[in-house]
């Protein structure tokens, strides 16, 4: 193992060095990948040196999500403390299903969940888990809602049409989950949003009344804290006002993207009313820059987690109280340790440190919006209180611009679409960035456009 640890050090140092020199790697075209890198598997293994060289080639030609030129997705940057925790989790290689195997790691997970429940005022019966990502957090919430609506479904299966309500700007995992959960895509009501990307509570109410009048069975309402494109926050209080009239409705808040505003005194008002929801999730691998993936789901009533996810298995649960056998509340059996990396970060910088990270992202987004608004060649499509900054530049086709920047190895940034408009989406989620890094983004993009003016398509 010693040799591998040394090689790990060496390759990591090389990567860090290269990241500094070159924030974006020129992509290898997908259909040329197997000709470029020796990825195919053979009956004979590679010797130490060629393996080392191959690993180096693979590492150095992989897209760099941790540099100051990556604005492409809802994660980015490398948090050193989070990375340390992740590396230790790999070394320990525990599974989180039982206390017997996880030991203190189980305690670490429980401490985080309890603290999150406390910070959100979820009450003394609340509990949670670390699902494998935000999509799966939303899935677990939907399953709890389904089983709370009808406690026999887990025995008998779904036998009636059950309706889901979510905004048209919500994440596509809601659709996937309706497929997996036996609910069906056609039972989703996509509720209209306003110009800011927030669900219209009156449209929700109208749809609910119509469906109930028609004898249908609404069971799940999903509100989003940070929509995937515009970063908009649904008004949880207003939505809850509507849902509370219907006692069987479960209210989930999908905070995968921006639920971590809970850590900021300045921005937690964006999820005001969250304590009235039945469940809530956020991804620490998004705003908190913890390595992928780290997602937390909490729910008001612990018994709902148990009802939907506990199953007896004598070969597994042999010791300890079920409160410490976390396999009784999880989707999978063997489960990786996603808690240690978040705990290492949280422990090292405290809750106020998490707050600074969140605040920094809003500050960076403001810098970007200010820049855009002060430069007449730009058009802005997003709003305050969002870390997604959406814009177009010189009427250049945003897909063409983003794809060219990527292919030429200049910047990683993506485009999005909302209400018929397509635009570049700059995600200000890397809290290691400073304002000058944001300004540098615009400088690189503008110089590139000047260089390529004739080749880029304008709309
Ligand atoms: C990212 C995101 C998800 C999905 O999270 P994964 O961890 O990628 O599965 C769900 N909802 C919203 C709003 C998101 O932004």
Entry summary:
This is Aminotransferase class V-fold PLP-dependent enzyme. It contains 15 helices and twelve strands.
Structure description:
It comes from Psychroflexus aurantiacus. Belongs to the group II decarboxylase family. Keywords: Aminotransferase, Decarboxylase, Lyase, Pyridoxal phosphate, Transferase. This protein has 459 residues and is of the alpha/beta class. It folds into two domains: 65 residues; 260 residues, Aspartate Aminotransferase, domain 2. The chain contains 15 helices and twelve strands. It is globular and about 60 Å long. Pyridoxal-5'-phosphate binds next to helix 7. Pyridoxal-5'-phosphate (PLP) binds next to helix 7.
Helix and strand layout, with pairings?
Elements: H1 2-21, H2 33-36, H3 48-60, E1 70-71, H4 80-92, H5 99-102, H6 104-119, E2 127-129, H7 134-149, H8 153-156, E3 162-167, H9 173-180, E4 188-191, H10 201-213, E5 217-224, H11 236-243, E6 250-255, E7 279-283, E8 295-299, H12 302-309, H13 339-373, E9 378-380, E10 388-393, H14 398-407, E11 412-418, E12 421-427, H15 435-452
Parallel strand pairs: 1-11, 3-4, 3-5, 5-6, 6-7
Antiparallel strand pairs: 2-8, 7-8, 9-10, 10-12, 11-12
Helix pairs in contact: 1-3, 4-13, 6-13, 7-9, 7-12, 10-11
The chain binds pyridoxal-5'-phosphate (PLP).
Pyridoxal-5'-phosphate binds next to α7.
Cofactor: pyridoxal 5'-phosphate
Keywords: Aminotransferase, Decarboxylase, Lyase, Pyridoxal phosphate, Transferase
Protein name: Aminotransferase class V-fold PLP-dependent enzyme
